[in-house]
Inverse folding.
């Protein structure tokens, strides 16, 4: 079965960076893209960006451009999302999701809580 | 601010039918991009309920259905059950932003 397993919770200082991993199993990794979505406490879902596991093409939301880097490592079937210059309002649960061709996010990781104390 | 607008909350008694609207514009839903719906139970990751406007993944009860018309889409839940109490989000693609976009989210309460 398809599974996306994310790395554990992180606590970071303002100004630092965080790198969240998302390890895929149960499907051919290079066929699908991975989207990254975050959810601040008590808030809605916010799309951060997408990367193709086939060719590395990527697109990030304008809000995060210059601050986010998405990568994939085919040998380990793992996607990564690095967010730099962290602020307290980056405190959120970060999700990876496997994306279908019509942008539907059918399979999701369990989420990674990133806390940036004020 | 999201480009897809949903009502903050809807409620209904067990067994009733409720609908959640998702209002967009000519650069997303109105441009023909597919709409997907997600259910999020407290403390869990979102789960896809409807993809491609009106398709249910296997395992999703047929009490859930989706539709799309013009610049809006809707999710209907018939035969409301206590376990349906959750947050619901629509999602599409916006060509002006070149981004995937989520709706503002709707909390469903079962009275």
């Amino acid at each position: 079965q398809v599974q996306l397993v994310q790395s554990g919770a992180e606590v970071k200082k303002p100004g630092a960076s965080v790198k969240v991993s998302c390890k895929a199993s149960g499907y051919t990794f290079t066929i699908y893209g991975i989207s990254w979505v975050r959810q601040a406490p008590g808030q809605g879902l916010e799309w951060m960006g997408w990367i193709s596991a086939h060719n590395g093409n990527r697109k990030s939301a304008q809000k995060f451009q210059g601050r986010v880097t998405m990568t994939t490592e085919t040998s380990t079937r793992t996607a990564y999302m690095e967010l730099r210059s962290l602020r307290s309002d980056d405190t959120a649960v970060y999700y990876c999701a496997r994306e279908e061709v019509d942008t539907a996010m059918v399979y999701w990781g369990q989420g990674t809580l990133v806390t940036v104390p004020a | 601010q999201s480009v897809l607008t949903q009502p903050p909350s809807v409620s209904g008694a067990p067994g009733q039918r409720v609908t959640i609207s998702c209002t967009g514009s000519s650069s997303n839903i109105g441009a023909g991009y597919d709409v997907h719906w997600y259910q999020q139970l407290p403390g869990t990751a979102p789960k896809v309920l409807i993809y491609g406007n009106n398709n249910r993944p296997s395992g999703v009860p047929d009490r859930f259905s989706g539709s799309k018309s013009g610049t809006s889409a809707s999710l209907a839940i018939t035969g409301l059950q206590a376990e349906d109490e959750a947050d619901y989000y629509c999602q599409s693609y916006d060509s002006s932003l070149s981004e995937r976009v989520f709706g503002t989210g709707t909390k469903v309460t079962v009275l």
Summary: Chain A has a mean pLDDT of 96. Residues 93 and 113 of chain A are 4 Å apart (CA to CA).
